[in-house]
Amino acid sequence: MLCEAFAAGCGGVVADPRHGLKDGAAFFYGVVPETRALFDRARAEGRDWYYADNAYFDRGRQGYFRVTKNAFQHTRVSEPDYKRMDAIGIKVLPWREQGAHVVVCEQSAAFMDVCGYRGNWTTDALEILSRSTAREIRLRKWNRDKAKMAATLRADLAGAWALVTHMSAAANEALLLGVPVYITGAAAAAPVASGTTMEELCEIEEPAMLGGRSAWAASLCARQWTVDEIRNGNCWRALNV
Predict the structure, then answer these.
(1) 61 - beta bridge partners?
(2) Residue 149 bridge partners (DSSP)
(3) Which helix (H) or strand (E) holds 27?
(4) By the number of CB atoms within 10 A of the CB, which of 2, 114, 121, 185 ranks highest?
(5) Percent helix, strand, coil in the chain (nearest 5)?
(6) If one looks up domain 101-211 in CATH, what number appears?
């Protein structure tokens, strides 16, 4: 459905992955084993590629979808849309300055491979954190059931000192609640994260509580679209201004 909507919005066609890449830019809704070779080829050939996935915030899940050009996530603060933010129901709470545990959110091995992480991310992160904090480390193992994971995230964030992940949207939810985050990949949380590299996890006890989270959140709200907005070309035009 999403591939058909994007094709309608940009004047493209939906291709059968078994028949290889057609000419021009390529659009992917996630990257699965059946499309991995095509995704790698599109990038290797220097084509423009568009990547779609679930919304940046759980409240918009299945109502909105994020789409980016030549990136997995939107990693800067662009034109904020506060009206859209209010319509989705996004609220930004004050920074939390106390907490007893650190939430660590791992992602699938397949995704980590697609985005180019080499090694075992969970092992690497836990090793640094164990040396850098005496707080409880609460690991959220990857689960294919995203709705179930979203339902339990808020409970894990209650009383949390910080959240650590590579590029999970869980970081966005933590930031709304005022929980500092540390990311290790090119994630949407980057503009207001306390750390953006694996090495910076050693600073987990001294999180930077940056300003600008409302503008950041409103900016991400403007970079996710409904299926109708993708179908009518609004998404395509916004990505190609």
Answers:
(1) 64
(2) none
(3) strand 26-29
(4) 185
(5) 40, 15, 45
(6) 3.40.50.2300
What pLDDT does 148 receive?
77
> Rounded CA gap, 143 and 19, in Å?
31
Per-residue model confidence as pLDDT tens digits over 28-53: 999 989 999 999 999 999 999 999 99
Per-domain residue ranges for the chain?
2-74+223-239, 101-211
Q: What span, in angstroms and rounded, lies between the C-alpha atoms of 168 and 172? A: 8
> Kind and range of the H or E element at 182?
strand 181-183
Q: Which residues pair with 102 in a beta bridge?
A: 137, 162
Q: Report H helices in 143-212.
A: 146-157, 170-176
CA distances to 76, 117, 150 from 174, in Å: 18, 23, 11
Residue 219 has pLDDT above 90, yes or no: yes
Task: Give 7: exposed, middle or buried? Use CB within 10 Å, 0-12, 13-18, 19+.
Answer: middle
Q: Is 6 helix (H, G, I), strand (E, B) or coil?
A: helix
Which of 139, 104, 120, 116 has its CA nearest to residue 185? Answer: 116
Residue 240 confidence (pLDDT): 96
Residue labelled with tokens 């964030």? 157
Threshold 0.85, pTM exceeds: yes
Question: What token pair was written down for 156?
Answer: 């894990």
Sheet holding 65-69, edge to edge: 26-29, 49-54, 65-69, 224-225
User: Residue 147 corresponds to which tokens in the numbers above?
Assistant: 């709705």
Q: Report the greatest alpha carbon distance in the chain.
A: 55
Q: What is the mean pLDDT of residues 10-17?
A: 93
